Amino acid sequence: MKHTTLSRFLIEQQRTAGVLPAELRLLVEIVARACKAISHSVNRGVLGGVLGSLESENVQGEVQKRLDVIANEKLLEANEWGGHLAAMASEEMETIHLIPNRFPKGEYLLLFDPIDGSSNIDVGLSVGTIFSVLQAPASSATREVVEADFLQPGRTQVASGYAIYGPQSLLVLTVGTGVFEFTLDREVGSWVLSDSNITMPSGTREFAINMSNQRHWSPGTTRYIDQCLAGSTGPIGHDYNMRWTGSMVADVHRILKRGGVFLYPADSRTGQGKLRLMYEANPMAFLIEQAGGAATDGVTPLMDVAPSKLHQRIGVVLGDKAEIERIRGLATSEG
Ligand code: AHG
Ligand code: MN
Ligand code: MN
After folding, report:
1. Where are the domains of the chain?
2. What's the CATH fold of domain 206-332?
3. Is residue 206 lining ligand 1, measured as CB closer than 6 Å?
């Protein structure tokens, strides 16, 4: 196998494809480097003293795991000094993090979920890091960046991706030219291209949803899952399989590679979903659309939603285009 490192891939994207500005290339490289460090911590587990919870809660009222905080710190530290960012935002921080004055200020905004799937950390299952890159509004060059600068629809993302810390550590990335997967070569210390131009297989009869929320679902969600459960004797006429890992990165990765659908729908408890628009839903939507799938809040494409706040939650329904269209139809029909 000819080894293409992430650095080489990015330089080629910059040179040949001409789609990647040098500053953005640097930014992606630094995020990838931070993910390498996070991967190392996750892998050390109990030996590194990184497991377990802290006393603290994040802005969403969730108890922070030790690794949530460690990963957040690693991402902040790695990205502060490079000169390519104007500000950062994270699931683990109430408001935005400005680049300290001692470092040059760049033109991009970085958002991240430092550890996705936190409930899986202490039981040795896959977790990951999700990130999204936006361009700061031109007007922010001469003033301090504010939270409102981040509130852009997902359609404006210039890059997004995730790292998954599982049996292998993988980095899955888009800069708008398709979806590429890199595997961490621990001995050499580099991310190596392991899958190019990933296209989601279509027609896979597999769904991912947390069934324990069933009583809170909307009629549309209930109708769709009922049809899946009815299998070959129902209106779809095919049997379905079900998977739920509790880590969005792991579920989305499976869907990218094997097909199917993932749902964390808005439900009657809050009228919103659980997942966060800016640093979970949008980056995954960008990847899924680039891989030929669809990503909606049940009806509207996620990347067309105009965000109203940094930590906004939203229903997420993504994966196989035909299934997402079926779900949209069921959500909007009366019957
Ligand atoms: P996080 O660990 O960043 O808070 O995200 C967890 C998310 C997502 O990864 C996963 O799909 C979902 O929460 C699982 O929720 P349930 O525990 O309700 O199944
Ligand atoms: Mn998450
Ligand atoms: Mn998280």
Report:
1. 6-195, 206-332
2. D-Maltodextrin-Binding Protein; domain 2 (3.40.190)
3. no
C-alpha 252 to ligand 3 mean position (Å): 15
Residue minimizing CA distance to atom 14 of ligand 1? 246
117 CA from centroid of ligand 2 (Å): 6
208, containing H or E segment = strand 206-208
Q: Which CATH number fits domain 6-195: 3.40.50.720, 3.30.540.10, 3.20.20.140, 3.80.10.10?
A: 3.30.540.10
In angstroms, what is the span from residue 240 Cα to ligand 2's centroid? 26
Is the four-CA dihedral 213, 215, 220, 225 of positive or negative sign?
positive
Structure tokens at 162: 């995730």
pLDDT at 2: 73
Task: Judge if 6-195 and 206-332 fold alike in CATH terms.
Answer: no
What's the rounded Cα separation, in Å, for the pair 319 and 214? 20
- For residue 182, how many C-alpha atoms fall within 13 Å in the half-sphere facing its CB? 28
- The C-alpha atoms of residue 45 and residue 173 are separated, in whole angstroms, by 26
Is 60 close to ligand 1, i.e. is its CB under 6 Å away? Answer: no
333 falls in which pLDDT band (50, 70, 90)?
confident
Q: What are the residues facing 276 on neighbouring strands?
A: 313
The pair of three-digit structure tokens given for residue 46, joined into one six-digit string:
């109990």
Report which of 284, 212, 207 is spatially closest to residue 243, judged by C-alpha positions. Answer: 207
- What spacing in Å lies between the alpha carbon of 246 and ligand 1's midpoint? 5
CA dihedral (262, 250, 158, 101) positive or negative: positive
119 CB less than 6 Å from ligand 1?
yes
The Cα-based distances of 112 to 43, 87, 271, 327 in angstroms read 20, 12, 24, 28
Overall pTM > 0.70? yes
Answer whether 210 contacts ligand 1 (Cβ < 6 A).
yes
pLDDT band of residue 97 (cuts 50, 70, 90) is very high
